[in-house]
Specification:
This protein has helices at about 1-15, 20-25, 40-60, 65-80, 90-105, 115-130, 145-160, 160-185, 190-205, 215-230, 250-280. It is mainly alpha-helical and about 280 residues long.
Length: about 280
């Protein structure tokens, strides 16, 4: 556990300052995990899990917790019965498992928070749907929601209101975290890591935001449109170069940024190796 925490701290420290540079210098291609075509049995099982997750979501939103408890048990049964080989990577299985466990934990609390329960049920619904539908998944509908959030962040920063910026960033993060498990199921781990790093940078800058320093906040929001477009597969083969003012030697910057990318890939590889050691076949 300590080793994993050490790697996480190293990752955050190194990437938080490089996130914008890396995300804008690499080629944006919206890479998708090349999942194998599911067998008929796998598709049937995935559809059953998706249906159970949908029922759970509906029961939660109607505040019928008795039926919601029955539905989450069905979700858990289908989750255990499903064969994931070829459908998603280790990270995708873990993301879906966390959604199931989080929803069950929220539901079985002595005094469950309906707000937290509705949010966990929404994440589970989107994740299960992502696994069952290789095309037209529900989480893809959040593209406009996230881009609207980014526009609000930019507008609030131009207005110089730290409170409005913080509110807009919270809204963006809430929506991103809602669709993140669904994205993890179908996207490459390195791509998710890049988006996570950019979100961490966005939060850090927003926390330090003061009136009169809107240029940096607005720039990050504008750069975020490209990051989100790549996540949703909206941008293809688009390379955006970040201008570096007052520096005449591009080779040092190339090595600097390349080192950041290396750290990102090394951390992703470590997580996958660590996960494969601990995960047990279902």
């Amino acid at each position: 556990m300590y080793g994993n925490q050490w790697w996480r701290r190293l990752w955050r420290a190194a990437i938080s300052t490089l996130a914008l540079l890396i995300s804008l210098l690499v080629t944006v291609n919206g890479s998708v995990y090349a999942a194998e075509k599911p067998t008929e049995e796998q598709q049937r099982q995935a559809d059953a899990l998706d249906q159970a997750a949908e029922e759970f979501y509906q029961h939660v939103t109607s505040q019928d917790l008795v039926k919601a408890l029955e539905s989450i048990q069905k979700v858990l049964q289908h989750f255990k019965a499903l064969s994931y080989e070829g459908l998603t990577q280790v990270e995708g299985i873990h993301a879906l498992a966390e959604c199931v466990m989080d929803a069950r934990l929220e539901l079985t609390k002595a005094s469950p928070s309906m707000e937290a329960l509705e949010e966990s049920s929404a994440r589970l619904r989107l994740a299960a749907d992502s696994l069952a539908h290789s095309k037209g998944a529900l989480w893809q509908q959040y593209y406009k929601i996230l881009t609207d959030d980014l526009e609000k962040i930019g507008q609030a920063s131009l207005g110089g209101s730290g409170e409005k910026v913080a509110s807009a960033v919270r809204s963006f993060k809430l929506h991103y975290e809602r669709i993140r498990p669904a994205a993890v199921i179908v996207r490459e781990p390195s791509e998710i890591s890049m988006v996570d790093a950019w979100v961490s940078r966005l939060e850090a800058v927003s926390e330090q935001f003061e009136k009169g320093s809107s240029d940096e906040m607005t720039g990050i929001a504008e750069q975020g449109t490209g990051v989100i477009a790549a996540l949703f597969g909206k941008a293809k083969e688009t390379t955006v170069m970040l201008p570096i003012k007052g520096y005449s030697n591009p080779w040092i910057w190339t090595l600097f940024i390349g080192g950041g990318i290396g750290i990102a890939l090394a951390y992703t590889a470590y997580r996958k190796y660590d996960a494969e050691k601990r995960i047990r076949p279902i």
